[in-house]
Design brief:
Elements lengths: L1 H14 L8 E21 L4 E15 L5 E16 L2 E12 L13 H4 E14 L3 E13 L12 E13 L6 E12 L14 E13 L4 E19 L6 E20 L1
Parallel strand pairs: 1-11
Antiparallel strand pairs: 1-2, 2-3, 3-4, 4-5, 5-6, 6-7, 7-8, 8-9, 9-10, 10-11
């Protein structure tokens, strides 16, 4: 009986370390510096509803892997609702367009499906306001869909993530500025078995941002910010009939500065 118990204990202790055995394992590290610019328009109603439309463009000023280039654009439409002042909900859609330095541009005949991504998201934000600051916690579930042809064993056609953000906004009495800071973790939810890390889902992004919002008129403001991103991904390549499995661990260190114009009415 003691031997059985020890065997079960040994088995359970090794499950967390289980992983696929890959035929080839490599690692890449990319450093980049970005410039971002965008605009955000929000219409608010007295019943707590709001409609937002935003556009953001991202440019690599430096990229150790591909060089300077247009990287991505994000076009987002979101509907929000605040039933009470401590809680708000958001539901939205984003069309993401990848830049010409992405994989699709190296093919002989580019297909639009290779550089378009469709994202839907739902988030819940809880907040509490003090005299000179507001702290908040946001939980967001998002799904990014792709319509190009992929191997389902290598990556998800509908990739789900959970993003958890904690942040704080600060108020400066008598001044038209509002400094803020936040940190966010992004975790995969349905990475395929071969892509998982030690048999589990994994943290794929850690983002931190600090900035200041400057109120220029009653309805408009500018948001100046700096963001640092640590990205981690596991790229899988499986040859025909699973004959050969290649794993590339991809690490990204990204610095970004940006400005966003906000109009609220």
């Amino acid at each position: 009986m003691k031997r059985v118990f020890l065997s079960i204990l040994l088995l359970t202790s090794t499950l967390g370390a289980w992983a696929w055995s890959y035929d080839s394992e490599t690692a890449t590290t990319t450093h980049s510096a970005q410039w971002r610019m965008g605009a955000d328009f929000t219409k608010k109603w007295h019943n707590g509803l709001r409609l937002g439309i935003s556009e953001e463009l991202r440019f690599d000023l430096y990229n150790s892997a591909t060089g300077p280039a247009f990287r991505k654009s994000f076009t987002t439409v979101a509907l929000g609702y605040t039933p009470v002042k401590y809680v708000k909900f958001d539901l939205g859609y984003t069309l993401k367009v990848l830049g010409p330095d992405s994989t699709w541009s190296t093919t002989k005949k580019a297909d639009a499906n290779e550089y378009l991504r469709h994202r839907v998201f739902f988030s819940v934000t809880g907040s509490y306001k003090f005299d000179y600051a507001k702290i908040y916690l946001r939980e967001r579930v998002l799904m990014e869909a792709r319509t190009d042809s992929i191997n389902a064993l290598e990556k998800s056609k509908y990739a789900w993530q959970l993003r958890s953000r904690i942040g704080a906004d600060f108020y400066v009495p008598g001044k038209p500025v509002k400094p803020y800071v936040w940190c966010e973790l992004a975790n995969t939810l349905n990475a395929p078995e071969y892509q998982q890390k030690n048999g589990h889902q994994f943290i794929c992004n850690v983002r931190t941002q600090a900035g200041v919002k400057w109120r220029i008129t009653k309805l408009s403001s500018l948001d100046f910010y700096y963001r640092f991103t640590y990205g981690y991904d596991r790229d899988i390549n499986i040859t025909k009939k699973k004959g050969y499995i290649q794993l590339t661990e991809e690490t990204l260190y990204q610095h970004a500065i940006g400005v966003t114009y906000n109009l609220d009415w």
